[in-house]
Amino acid sequence: MIICPLCQENYVFVSSLCQECSRIRKLSSLYGRNTILTILESVLLRKQVGIIKKTELEGKKFLTYPPKKEIEEIEV
Ligand SMILES: [Zn+2]
Predict the structure, then answer these.
(1) Label partner for 67 (CA 20 to 30 A): which of 18, 23, 51, 61?
(2) What secondary structure letter does DSSP report for 74?
(3) How far is the CA of 20 from the centre of ligand 1 (A)?
C-alpha cells in the first residue's frame, strides 16, 4: 500500500493517485493547471479586504462606548 501523494489520506494500490485525486488531475488536464488554481484560490481563500472588514466588524463587538446623552430639546 502506498499513500496517495496528492491528498496523503487515501491509499492507492494500482494507480499513482487515488480516485478523487485522479478526478482533480483530469480536471486539471482539461482546463489547465493555472485555471484550476485560480478557481480554487478565488473560491476558497478569503480576500485581504474581506479579512480586514471582518476584523473591524468583530472588533466593534468588543468596543464599549459610553452611552450617548440624548440632547434634550429646550422649549422656548
Ligand atoms: Zn488522493
Answers:
(1) 51
(2) P
(3) 6
